[in-house]
Structure to design on (518 residues):
């Protein structure tokens, strides 16, 4: 608890210093959060280029608007509001364009970057590997079929480990609405992965 | 409600149950059903496995991507013309620091990191195979981090042949005092392309400043072009201000550093080490000369005052010779 409190005090000091124009303090603040921001963008958008765009745009917006941050919510919530809005914009545009950015061209032909993710659970068992490969493929498909909001809530809950209450704050909605969204997402996944459950 | 329907309704709640996001009543309903239904208990375990399997499709961004994002952001922040509203000058911030009204990031390093991720800019200085023994761990070998086309020439059938220089990225971890890690850290502390990397590295080196070669690296960092890096190096040398080479470097800071916070801290360190262990007679003539020179040319009234007090404390003249 003391450590957490100490961390919050330090963060507050960094924010105040950055609001006062200290760029080093701002960059320290960036480094406290940028890895999880990049991971969120990368997993939602499945494209290093788009994730990099979101990273730059998000932190530049934070920098330009830092003087408006009044500590009404946590800095994390404020930052994530900006990041999730940018990601949702990208995802909505992509739905319209019907792009599939996880596929990249390589010398060996088209490659899905998600397929290169090592499946530790498969171990050395070929049958298990095939099963896991098939499962992974289905998971990928169902994640891509979720609506941007369902995908976002699922990402924030499952991969970022945020509670629904915090997710509601970030997305500007209630905890109950976030819960309904997560419920819909998990129901769709359950339906799609029925053979495996 | 039939048993079958009841099972289906409970299974609908499994995902949220596993996330711990059900209300008290909903959770109670699930658990009381599980107590009686073996099939649902098994189904819950399968659901748990599938949810865990979802972790395997998560993508972890390559360290090179993060490094590149940070570099781009640093560059773009430099281009930002409009300063945040409410910006205060260094003097006001300095007064805040000295009055204890803030614990500025300049003076309060975030803390030492235990794992160092080094960008390819550093890794490239090592030949392949340097690591992998002697207690160091090597991971992710061969992940392309950067490439550059060196030659292009047309080939038959309308194809083209390219010669590409490719740099691989590696993640290396090991104790800070390992010689191999130290070579990398010393190099990272001087990486001209990334002040953030230099600052992080100096912060890590600070925990090993008892070693003379580390102190030498920190002394080198006192001349870094970035004030944040210099201030971190100064913090690392804080406990070694009595060492002749450190005192000499601090004296140079007094006379040459453009950052007033650096000059103020140099006065503090030189004076503090004097008061603790070196009585008046031990006060280095060179330091006195430097302070007298500073007193004459310093434009900042606060620093002049600190300088004057330091000289008076050793009964030295406040005039330059």
């Amino acid at each position: 608890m003391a450590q957490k409190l100490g961390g919050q005090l330090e963060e507050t000091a960094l924010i105040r210093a950055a609001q006062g124009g200290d760029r080093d303090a701002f960059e320290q603040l960036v480094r406290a959060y940028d890895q999880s921001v990049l991971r969120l963008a990368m997993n939602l958008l499945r494209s290093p280029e788009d994730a990099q765009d979101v990273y730059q745009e998000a932190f530049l917006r934070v920098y330009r608007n830092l003087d408006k941050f009044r500590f009404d919510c946590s800095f994390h919530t404020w930052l994530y509001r900006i990041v999730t809005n940018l990601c949702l914009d990208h995802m909505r545009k992509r739905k319209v364009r019907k792009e599939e950015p996880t596929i990249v061209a390589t010398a060996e032909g088209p490659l899905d970057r998600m397929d290169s993710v090592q499946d530790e659970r498969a171990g050395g068992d070929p049958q298990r590997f095939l099963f896991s490969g098939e499962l992974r493929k289905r998971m990928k498909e169902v994640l891509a079929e979720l609506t941007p909001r369902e995908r976002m809530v699922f990402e924030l809950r499952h991969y970022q480990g945020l509670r629904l209450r915090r997710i509601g704050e970030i997305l500007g909605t209630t905890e109950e609405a976030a819960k309904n969204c997560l419920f819909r997402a998990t129901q769709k996944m359950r339906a799609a992965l029925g053979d495996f459950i | 409600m039939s048993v079958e329907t009841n099972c289906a309704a409970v299974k609908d709640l499994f995902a949220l149950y596993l996330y711990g996001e059900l209300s008290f009543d909903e959770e109670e309903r699930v658990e009381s059903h599980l107590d009686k239904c073996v099939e649902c208990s098994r189904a819950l375990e399968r659901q748990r496995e599938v949810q865990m399997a979802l972790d395997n499709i998560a993508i972890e961004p390559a360290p090179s991507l993060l490094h590149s994002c940070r570099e781009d952001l640093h560059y773009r922040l430099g281009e930002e013309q409009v300063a945040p509203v409410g910006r205060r000058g260094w003097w006001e911030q300095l007064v805040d620091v000295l009055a204890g009204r803030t614990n500025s990031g300049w003076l309060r390093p975030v803390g030492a990191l235990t794992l160092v991720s080094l960008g390819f800019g550093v890794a490239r200085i090592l030949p392949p195979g340097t690591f992998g023994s002697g207690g160091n761990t090597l991971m992710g070998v061969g992940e392309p981090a950067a490439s550059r086309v060196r030659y292009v020439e047309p080939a038959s059938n309308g194809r083209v042949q390219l010669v590409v220089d490719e740099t691989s990225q590696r993640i290396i971890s090991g104790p800070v005092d390992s010689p191999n890690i130290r070579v990398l850290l010393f190099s990272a502390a001087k990486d001209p392309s990334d002040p953030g990397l230099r600052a992080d590295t100096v912060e890590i080196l600070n925990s090993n400043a008892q070693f003379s070669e580390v102190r030498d690296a920190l002394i080198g960092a006192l001349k870094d072009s970035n004030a944040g890096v210099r201030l971190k190096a100064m913090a690392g040398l804080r406990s070694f201000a009595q060492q002749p080479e450190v005192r000499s470097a601090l004296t140079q800071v007094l006379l040459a550093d453009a950052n007033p916070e650096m000059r103020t801290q140099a006065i503090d360190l030189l004076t503090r080490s004097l008061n603790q262990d070196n009585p008046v007679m031990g006060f280095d003539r060179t330091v006195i000369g430097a302070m007298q020179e500073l007193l004459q040319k310093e434009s900042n009234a606060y620093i002049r005052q600190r300088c004057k007090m330091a000289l008076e404390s050793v009964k030295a003249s406040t005039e330059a010779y």
Confidence is low (pLDDT under 50) at residues 82-145 of chain B. Chain B touches chain A through 56 residues (CB under 8 Å). Strands of chain B lie at 137-154, 160-173.
